[in-house]
Amino acid sequence: MTTIFDAPEDFAATALRGFAALYGRYVRLVRNGVVRSTRTPEGKVAVVVGGGSGHYPAFAGYVGLGLADAAVAGDVFASPSTAAVARVCRAAHRGGGILLGFGNYAGDVLNFGVAADELRAEGMDVRIVHVTDDVASAPRETPEKRRGIAGDLVVFKIAGAAAEAGHALDAVERVARHANSRTVTVGVAFGGCTLPGAREPLFTVQKGRMAVGLGIHGEPGVAESEALPAADLARLLTDRLLEERPAGVTRVGALLNGLGATKYEELFVLWTRIAERLSAEGLTVVAPEAGEFVTSLDMSGCSLTLLWLDEELESLWTAPCDTPVLRRGAAPQALEAPGSEDMSGEEGGNAGFARAPEAGRRGAACIAGTFEAMAALLREKEAELGRIDAQAGDGDHGQGMARGSAAALLAARTAAEAGAGTATTLRAAAEAWADRAGGTSGALWGVLLKAFAAELSDDAEPAGEAVVKGARAALDAVMRAGGAKVGDKTLVDAFVPFVDVLDARFAATGSLKIAWTEAAEVAGQAAEATAPLSPKLGRARPLAERSIGHPDAGAVSLAMIATVIGARLS
Amino acid sequence: MTTIFDAPEDFAATALRGFAALYGRYVRLVRNGVVRSTRTPEGKVAVVVGGGSGHYPAFAGYVGLGLADAAVAGDVFASPSTAAVARVCRAAHRGGGILLGFGNYAGDVLNFGVAADELRAEGMDVRIVHVTDDVASAPRETPEKRRGIAGDLVVFKIAGAAAEAGHALDAVERVARHANSRTVTVGVAFGGCTLPGAREPLFTVQKGRMAVGLGIHGEPGVAESEALPAADLARLLTDRLLEERPAGVTRVGALLNGLGATKYEELFVLWTRIAERLSAEGLTVVAPEAGEFVTSLDMSGCSLTLLWLDEELESLWTAPCDTPVLRRGAAPQALEAPGSEDMSGEEGGNAGFARAPEAGRRGAACIAGTFEAMAALLREKEAELGRIDAQAGDGDHGQGMARGSAAALLAARTAAEAGAGTATTLRAAAEAWADRAGGTSGALWGVLLKAFAAELSDDAEPAGEAVVKGARAALDAVMRAGGAKVGDKTLVDAFVPFVDVLDARFAATGSLKIAWTEAAEVAGQAAEATAPLSPKLGRARPLAERSIGHPDAGAVSLAMIATVIGARLS
To answer: A160-214, pLDDT tens digit by residue?
Structure first.
């Protein structure tokens, strides 16, 4: 049970602020993340890591000498926005380029990937390493489909040590990929976790039983069994990992990770058995760690990570570091970084909107009005969308959509009041949505709205042909960014028939009202039809299928929004 | 739920072994504890801390430069035995004397106190500081009745810094007492904890509610309320502590402690609110810490500790230290201590028993037979005694008695087989019981049996008068050591009438069988009669009265044992 919070939606941001207040000797707060507060040499490669919150010490606790330079924090179990990633990277960059490290989840891949593109366009050299250590999430033959769990810390430690040693970006990227290919993790869960503000746990494990291979957001495991004595649990974990032992490896790094409610003394008990097993297999364990490294709120369970060492990896694994969560050897003396300006505040603001002609300003008011209707709808449907999403995902879709639309409404109003035109107002709303909603759906709605805006003008109200073209452009952009196709159980399943019907019926009738209304109806049916289908895109989505009987929340919310907008058309 | 273990009774010892295996750079395992593995100057005051297990990082995680020199670990929620405390102190002593630090619980006061006496008899200078920081456990006017909770770490940190700075024992003791008098803590619990191997939690807190002032073993709180938002919870905690703010204090050290299942991010959220409150009260917070410092297995909840600083305390609070759980500033470089002999094995063994005459050897066999019956009884009644104890104490009485009697049986058999006489065999059993059972009852039964043995001879079987005198001597010793009187709801309540009846009826009838049987019956009635009474001696006992309707487990087990022994008399 997550118990201590004020407004649940502020949980992640407030926790980050508290962390930064306590650990000022390591970090300085920036918006949506932290950067080192200690002096970093110019030209050093910056290792920037991140992901959703709720996993402390992942990721802010990894920042310090010999490990990460900065961490980006999304909302609880939700990817940080593209803008957040880019912002933290800019604060951390010292001219040596950036290695972006994060666990392999669709939302993070999307947001970090788009941010990398933006930063490259600004002239920064940015490389990406997704961590894929969870052996239970996909077979050995398709490592790129594996999730990233506690191996995150191992891979980041290796990259951080290489960067601290002064290696160039090419070398840091190479060794980080190498470490990822030799890092394997398997976990078990004894009990679920509860999101701040939620009344029920995200999932439960029956008392006296355990889920094997469960992910860190409650993704289903590969098997369920009786909870085992420590000796048998140690055997189960080590045997699964030893299946992937590369030939000739005799030395391993090890990380025994508690997920939250499983305590240190339990981990120490388990470690005695794991150490026996590894030794019996002829493996020498180098600098093992047991503790909380990647948690899942108050989830009960643990995972074992092994790093198959070679000479290069061993020297980086044992290299000194000094962070809130991990300390090794004699870390070089840290000097406080110069400057202490508060970098966490809101930036920019309405950087002045050009005043649009009368028609464009009427269009802007219409956009703002539309977002008002959308925000009201999504506030009302927040709990329902959350429940639908919880069947197959991590239950945060309702929260993300509510937050995104509220932010978009604010931005659209501000733009409209400042005299901006239709397209500019929609673009401002799109950026606010992407930045504030977080997660996969936040990123996708940002992309969707931005592409829509590109088909509109600042000189006219949104009408007929431009709207139909905008919808088509938005669909294309979403499919490009998300990589999903019809049948993958995402909002695309509802969006494709919506645009097809809108296109066809507008061509036939010339009435946007009629075309849009029919299209929205078809989208609603398509959303319902996502229920009995198979895997879909999304952060923390199951690989096995849990969502039978439940439609996809992203498709449902898209159809709802289409219906509400249709009702406003005249 | 405590989930990972093999044999529950080995949980604490195995966890300690695993901890030492992982943290060899800080500690070396000794029997029942750890000592620093780094070099310590001759003549330095040794700060030795300890208490029950289940509270990691208390107490093994406190060992390292600038903090403790060694830690003694009892079983889960049970005081370490007198022998364990003495043993660890001997391993840590560097000629500068010893400061013994522990939380104020009856079992620890007893075991550490007796150990201190033993060590003083060996010529060591030993001082004791009980930590009494829990403001909810007794009024301000009787600080000596307050329990020690998370303030343990604060007081030990101050003492450790003074010792590391080279201060003599007098000065270290003085500043430790001063720190204790200025350290206050208040805690809340949202949910209970489960002992390894137990099927049900030790206590529960209703969902959505919280217990205010709950102790770290489930001792009842002072109030119950709705679980509060972070801002209100911060106000509740700080306001209670500010009631005890000494005049003129403007600077405080602070420790926000998670009890196990409450996560770091929740603590960080709460910290932002606490910091606001303290600042509003004109207090400057110095080097605050938030994390897990004194846990209670998987208990959900947290506590806030404040240290009212003066110049001396501030310099010690901020002094460098380097331990598994707490690191500050640039700790002096540690050098590995010389020698690496395994100090954790069994010591001594049967150091050779003098062969007793025939009658004494028959007496030894009789003693061994008696312990066989006692061990069988206590194994059978283990769960029942645990249940009775759980009503008012921490539920470990059955486990402790079973473990103690099993160890005593083994020692008695070994002595008897080696040809030892009656008294020597009983003394060997007494020592084994005290050393292995742990907790208050283990210490008391050790004292009881040792005093009994002193009235027996190695040349004769235990008979009539000697047994009656032995029982009286045992009772006197228990009352001296435990400080309890009739009516305090301890085993004394059954023991006093037992000895009185035994004495009187033996004088009247001359039959030990008759006298013992009648005395055992009276003891049984007296044990039952402990049910509706008020506070009693014992580790982790409630201050309020929870045990109405339940007899005292210590009195019950004493009466049971008396009955079983009576049945063996002829």
So the answer is: 999 999 999 999 999 999 999 999 999 999 998 988 888 888 888 888 899 998 8
Q: Are residues B87 and B41 in the same domain?
A: yes
Cα dihedral value A217, B61, B262, A342, nearest 10: -80
Q: Do A5 and B229 touch (CB under 8 A)?
A: yes
Residue A336 is assigned to a structural domain of this protein: no
In this structure, are A495 and A429 located in the same domain?
A: yes
What is the count of structural domains for chain A?
2
DSSP state of B25: T
Nearest CA in chain A to B334: A330
**Distance from first CA to last CA of chain A, Å, rounded?**
48
Is residue B515 assigned to a domain? Answer: yes
Tell me if A555 sits within 8 A of A508, measured CB to CB: no
Cα three-residue angle A136-A141-A146, rounded to 5 degrees: 40
- Say yes or no: B278 and B406 in one domain: no
pLDDT given for residue A541 in this prediction: 38
Distances (CA, A) of B398 to A110, A370, B264: 57, 69, 35
Q: Closest CB to A22: pick one of B16, B53, B288.
A: B288
Give residue A283's identity as a one-letter amino acid code: L
Q: How many CB pairs under 8 A join A and B?
A: 170
Residues B242 and B380 in one domain: no
CB under 8 Å to B278, separation ≥6 — which residues? B238, B252, B254, B285
Kindly report, residue by residue over B362-417, the tens digit of the pLDDT: 999 999 999 999 999 999 998 889 888 877 666 778 888 998 999 999 999 999 98
**Helix (H) or strand (E) run with residue A326 in it:** none
To the nearest whole percent, how much of chain B has pLDDT over 90? 68
- Where helices occur in B52-150 by DSSP H, the ranges are 82-92, 106-121
pLDDT at position A543: 33
Does the pLDDT of residue A331 top 80, yes or no? no
Q: Are residues B26 and B145 in the same domain?
A: yes
The separation between CA B194 and the C-alpha centre of its own chain, rounded to angstroms, equals: 18
Three-state SS string across A154-195, please? HHHHHHHHHHHCCCCHHHHHHHHHHHHHCEEEEEEEEECCCC
CA A482 vs CA A448, A502, B537: distances in Å: 11, 22, 66
Q: Are B451 and B460 in contact (CB under 8 A)?
A: no
| Residue A1 belongs to some domain of the structure | no
Please check whether residues A261 and A188 belong to one and the same domain.
Answer: yes
The torsion of the CA quartet A362, A364, A368, A369, rounded to 10 degrees, works out to 30
Q: Which residues of A touch B288 (CB under 8 A)?
A: 22
Domain boundary among A278, A304, A325: A325
- Bond before A57 cis per omega within 30 degrees: yes
Q: What is the pLDDT of residue A529?
A: 85
**Domain span holding position A376:** 358-568
CB atoms within 10 A of CB A170: 12
Would you call A217 a catalytic residue per the annotation? Answer: yes
Chain A residues whose beta carbon lies within 8 Å of the beta carbon of residue B17: 268, 272
Does residue A319 share a domain with residue A431?
no
Q: Which of A55, A167, A217, A397 is catalytic?
A: A217
From chain B, the residues in CB contact with A300 under 8 A are 1, 3, 298
Nearest chain B residue (CA) to A7:
B229
* 3-state helix, strand and coil shares in percent for chain B, rounded to the nearest 5: 45, 15, 35
Domain boundary among B311, B328, B345: B328
Instruction: For residues A393 and A557, give the distance between their C-alpha atoms in angstroms, rounded to a whole number.
Output: 15
For A425-441, the pLDDT digits (tens) are 999 999 899 888 877 78
Of A14, A210, A229, the CB nearest to B6: A229
Q: Is A138 contained in some domain?
A: yes
Segment A475-503 mean pLDDT: 90
* Over residues B7-19, mean pLDDT: 92
Is pLDDT above 60 for B349?
no
Q: Are residues A277 and A385 in the same domain?
A: no
